[in-house]
Amino acid sequence: QKEVEQNSGPLSVPEGAIASLNCTYSDRGSQSFFWYRQYSGKSPELIMFIYSNGDKEDGRFTAQLNKASQYVSLLIRDSQPSDSATYLCAVKSVEKLVFGKGTKLTVNP
Amino acid sequence: GAVVSQHPSWVICKSGTSVKIECRSLDFQATTMFWYRQFPKQSLMLMATSNEGSKATYEQGVEKDKFLINHASLTLSTLTVTSAHPEDSSFYICSASTGKEKLFFGSGTQLSVL
Questions:
Q1: Burial class of A1 by CB neighbour count within 10 A (0 to 12, 13 to 18, 19+)
Q2: Averaged pLDDT for residues A30-52
């Protein structure tokens, strides 16, 4: 059973702070890793994807991947109230995307 | 980015009736479409994978006779929930793939079975 684990939260950070979201996965053969944001009652939207070990930055978002530790994270700098949502980690295993349960982030003004 | 249209956005039906949900890729051809179900505060669970012109591949535990999937063209896939029951009430989301890494999601359908 391929699994993707995330802390369900909620994670609360003050506006302007760095929010750190973490994810571990069980399938060592996984090659692609994604972070999605989902607002309540809406479908997920892709924020970032990462394939290689290390960091990948896109604006205020940084994805970090460590395949040896089977760990992927998402950092959100200068968090804004509009970033408040559930963040889903997804891992591609054998052409299927397996989602974690998501971490609910609240950014307090 | 690519657009995936899903409708209806929400549907309420009586127990025992069937409900059809459509998923269309508007500006690209989707080689593969995926159907997910999401219960409140739970993750997206993959129900089935469909490729145009072939039978869908269902995940373990998903009843293929209850959740009928038709992928008639490269831009349209439908999910029919047959003889719906209250336990089928959920948020159903389709996604489409161009064959590359990214998935594009529809807006989802909230199904409530009374």
A1: exposed
A2: 91
